């Protein structure tokens, strides 16, 4: 990896972590794809495959 790509990766990782923390503070689930499945991390830390957005 070049220095530039290492620095960009570091910047992006920090931004993602900040966004995830902000979502949790605001009560918004974080959404991930794990092993080809969409999963949701609820603000309390629970991981589920059931969308918390369906009834809203």
Task: List the main descriptive attributes of the protein structure presented here.
alpha+beta, 56 residues
Describe it for me?
There is one protein chain. This protein has 56 residues and is α+β, with helices and mostly antiparallel strands. The protein has one helix spanning 3-26, and strands at residues 30-34, 37-41, 47-48. A hairpin with a 2-residue loop joins strand 1 and strand 2. It is elongated. The mean pLDDT is 95.
Task: Tell me the layout of helices and strands.
Blueprint: H1 3-26, E1 30-34, E2 37-41, E3 47-48
Antiparallel strand pairs: 1-2, 2-3
Q: What's the overall geometry?
A: elongated
Q: Provide the helix percentage.
A: 40-55%
Q: How many strands?
A: 3
What's the helix-strand series? HEEE
Q: What is the CA-CA span between the terminal residues?
A: 43 Å
Mean of residue pLDDT values: 95
* β-sheet strand percentage: 15-25%
Count of the separate structural domains: 1
Question: What composes the largest sheet?
Answer: 3 strands, antiparallel
Number of helices: 1
Which sequence of strands runs across the widest sheet?
1-2-3
**C-alpha Rg (nearest Å):** 14 Å
**Structural class, from secondary structure content?**
alpha+beta
The stretches of 5 or more residues where confidence is low (pLDDT under 50) are none
Give a short overview:
The protein is α+β, with helices and mostly antiparallel strands and 56 residues long.
